[in-house]
From TrEMBL:
Superkingdom of the organism of origin: Bacteria
Name of the featured protein: Pyroglutamyl peptidase
Signal peptide boundaries: 1-28
Keyword Zinc-finger: no
Record keywords, A-Z: Signal
Region spans: Disordered: 282-305, 339-363
Species of origin: Streptomyces nojiriensis
Taxonomic lineage: Bacteria, Bacillati, Actinomycetota, Actinomycetes, Kitasatosporales
């Protein structure tokens, strides 16, 4: 019965929050904070609470414009009242999951041209990113009358709005199952208008049926991960990928992590390294990993595994077939500390025996780490599964005027990158 109530609640929420002209959220049939018996407000938003560095960027009016122009303003506006209507921790937990899943589904539908609203290009990943942050900021300001585990509620909202929940493969016989991950925008202190083409590709492809290069059908499922070390430390990558490697008809046949990489090219990364070494480059909350090129570190809580893991994706088939509009290259670069050595050495032909990882082909940042974590898990749970990492070209084309949020070149480039991600997957997942 609980599952039926959850399904009905989510369906009602989608029916009310998603259209342009929305009614009140169905989970909480209110448009204002709940009232106590004496008429006083039973729930309020704190006037001032500490926000993290990522949430603090919401003070820039352009972030609100991206949400509104993506058609997601009602998610942010109505979420506080929905929170205030909850009566206990369990109800609050169900609500944040329902709203998170509704935001994810709305973003997928919008990216795939199934949901009108706003004047941004459908595949733009930024409305999801900034709407989610607006909702987490509302959660931080929420002052319920009961004791709430705010960190746990945020984790539920994050997982649900990133595709980690209620996003299983359909178990159709004969259909290959492809699971991918993308990332949020990052580097926002330098340019707050940035998008991430890997996140856009994930939204455009999630749930899509495609025809592989061998003519067979496949279904793609996707998640969009945060650019935050703390979420990786807390096991978000493993939560995302483990259910797709558990065996049975709902498991993936191939996994591929995707992130934004180098200007003008796609790269299939031959090697993922175990270390973090990207400091002083911060994550989205301005946190550092503690690892540098000279002194790499291992992520907290990372399970046992080798210093380097090699891709098992069919690199030759992909690079031999997909080269337009961007070249696709196999990147075998690594940085290591050789056995018996103390200084990092750059190599173009992979690691040497007994060396310590400093960086994989994708560097020592979270794009390398998502590849390592997902493929370490793959070697443990499903070693037969093809897996690896794809770097997209850097997304360019934002208008010179900093107040202009989008433009034709930017939109063309984002669409072209997403289309080529699909082409890579169609060749990588073909049966061999």
């Amino acid at each position: 019965m609980m599952l039926l109530r959850r399904a009905a609640s989510a369906a009602a929420l989608l029916a009310t929050v998603l259209p342009l002209a929305v009614a009140s959220p169905a989970h909480a049939d209110v448009a204002a904070p709940a009232q106590a018996a004496d008429g006083s407000t039973a729930c309020r938003a704190a006037a001032s609470v500490p926000l993290d560095a990522e949430q603090a960027r919401l003070s820039d009016a352009r972030t609100t414009a991206l949400v509104e122009r993506g058609g997601f303003g009602d998610f942010v506006r109505r979420f506080p009242a929905a929170l205030c209507a909850t009566r206990d921790p369990a109800e609050a937990g169900r609500l944040v999951t329902d709203w998170g899943e509704a935001l994810w589904q709305a973003s997928v539908r919008r990216a795939q041209g199934q949901r009108p609203g706003g004047d941004l290009a459908p595949g733009d990943d930024r409305p999801l990113y900034w709407a989610r942050l607006g909702m987490t900021a509302a959660l931080a300001r929420w002052q319920p009358e009961f004791t709430a585990d705010r960190a746990a509620l945020r984790a539920r909202l994050e997982d649900a709005s990133r595709g980690l929940t209620n996003n299983a493969f359909r178990t159709t016989p004969g259909v290959r199952r492809v699971f991918i991950s993308g990332f949020d925008p990052f580097g926002l202190d330098a340019e707050i208008r940035r998008a991430n083409p890997s996140g856009s590709a994930a939204l455009r492809l999630n749930g899509r049926r495609v025809t592989l290069a061998d003519g067979s059908p496949a279904e793609i499922r996707a998640v969009v991960l945060p650019v935050r070390y703390a979420d990786f430390d807390a096991g978000m990558v493993e939560r995302a990928f483990a259910p797709r490697m558990a065996g049975g008809p709902a498991s993936a046949d191939i996994i591929t992590t995707v992130s934004q990489g180098y200007p003008g090219i796609f790269t299939l990364e031959d090697w993922a390294g175990r270390a973090r070494s990207a400091d002083p480059y911060p994550d989205n909350v301005r946190a550092l990993s503690g690892g540098t090129r000279e002194h790499p570190v291992t992520a907290p809580g990372l399970g046992p595994g080798p210093e380097f893991i090699r891709t098992t994706l069919p690199a030759g088939a992909v690079t031999g077939a997909v080269q337009s509009p961007y070249p696709v290259l196999l990147n075998s670069d690594v940085t290591e500390i050789p056995a018996g050595g103390t200084a990092p050495v750059d190599r173009t032909d992979g690691p040497t025996p007994g060396s310590r990882a400093v960086a994989g082909g994708g560097g020592g940042y979270l794009s390398n780490e998502v590849a390592y974590r997902s493929n370490r898990l793959r070697t443990e749970l499903a070693p037969h599964l093809p897996g690896g990492h794809l770097h997209t070209p850097v997304l360019t084309g934002l208008p010179a005027d900093p107040q202009e949020l989008t433009g034709p070149e930017f939109e063309r480039n984002e669409s072209a990158i997403a289309a080529e991600v699909r082409a890579v997957l169609e060749h990588a997942a073909a049966r061999r």
